[in-house]
Amino acid sequence: MATFSYEALDRDGNRLRESGDFASPAELFVTLRQRGLSLLRYRRRLFPGLSLERGRVRRLVLAEFFRNLALLLRGGVPLMQALEDLEASPGDKALKRILTRVVADVRNGRMFSEALRAHRGIFPRIVLALVAIGEETGSLDRTLDDAGRHIERVHEIITSTKRALMYPTFVVVLMLVAFSVWIFYVLPKMLDLFQGLGLKELPAATVFLIATVDVCQRWWPVVPIFIALFAALRLAARAHPDLKFYWDAAAARTPVFGRIVKASALAFFFEYLSLLASAGIDILKSLDLMEDSVGHEELRRGIRRVREDVMAGFGLTEAFGRVTFFDPFVLRMVGVGEQTGNLPEQFLILARRYMDEVDKLVDTLSRTLEPILIVFAGIIFLLVALGLIGPIYQMVGQIK
């Protein structure tokens, strides 16, 4: 699947700018034609994750929409009227623009799931599958409510992971800024003053400071070059699956942070797998949906191998065991689920387990990082103090 930005005209001549995931430009053309739209131009986005395009809807807004729609349907409100009520209610402008098109499509006779599928760049593929199943089984209110709740839990997983990575990043950046001010502005002036006093021999700490300042002033361009290369590599990894595989594999094996990344990816995977299994979707279809939904490339390829092994006749536990990304705990829980016929509950237990692990790792990281940074800052302060105070004492001694 690729992400396309496109511009089209509706039957009234209105110009629409949207984005979505399609297998090819031909599928994009056919989908728009089914909606009664005329394609004007399109562009394949190389870096969809960096898109600043208007129309993106926040996860919590989507969750609220699905839960409110489920509540209206459960209260006996017809689907068309429920959609019109939500469209008319105040709320997120991007969602209201999409609802306007969804309402028009449903009014023209399209199924609700088909109307949502026209906006695949907004609605997750897993949610679209759940809506289609809800329509087929007559349990649309339940599947919509489940989708809303699970989107909220996925948001919690992603938020916890970002919080774990943002705190140390913020602290380190703040320390680097303070260190740069001292290295490039404060220390050079003071050290030049000491060197001009004609002292016979500077203390070792002062000599070390002078050497450090000299090295930093000579080699500081290396830092922005390294940051630029790192950013370029990250962007390239987003566009090329093979490079992204090695990037994600390396990230999952870094100390502490790697465990957070891996646990959050597994929590996301089992959270949605539980949702799909509870909705009655068979395991092969569920794995196919998850393969296109997870963002971690190493996990994505692991899911693909599990699906291929199950298709080849392996049991689900054995298929999971052939992928090194999954822990032994996963194999035990999946094995119990296969034996008891209760896989949805086992998947949910696994999702909760990895979510709890993310929370504990975030808390441990915060409590561990603070004393380490304090000690590091104290060592730097001590070296600076010794380097600055030493020449002053030496100068006072020469005066006496």
From TrEMBL:
GO terms for cellular component: plasma membrane. It is found in: Cell inner membrane. It is a multi-pass membrane protein. InterPro entries: GspF/PilC (IPR003004), T2SS_GspF_dom (IPR018076), T2SS_GspF_sf (IPR042094). The chain crosses the membrane at residues 165-187, 219-237, 263-284, 372-393. It comes from the Bacteria. Residues 65-188, 269-389 form the Type II secretion system protein GspF domain. Gene3D superfamilies: Type II secretion system (T2SS), domain F (1.20.81.30). Keywords: Cell inner membrane, Cell membrane, Membrane, Transmembrane, Transmembrane helix. It holds the Pfam family T2SSF. Belongs to the GSP F family. PANTHER family: GENERAL SECRETION PATHWAY PROTEIN, TYPE II SECRETION SYSTEM PROTEIN F-RELATED. This is Type II secretion system F family protein. It comes from Dissulfurirhabdus thermomarina. The lineage of its organism: Bacteria, Deltaproteobacteria, Dissulfurirhabdaceae, Dissulfurirhabdus.
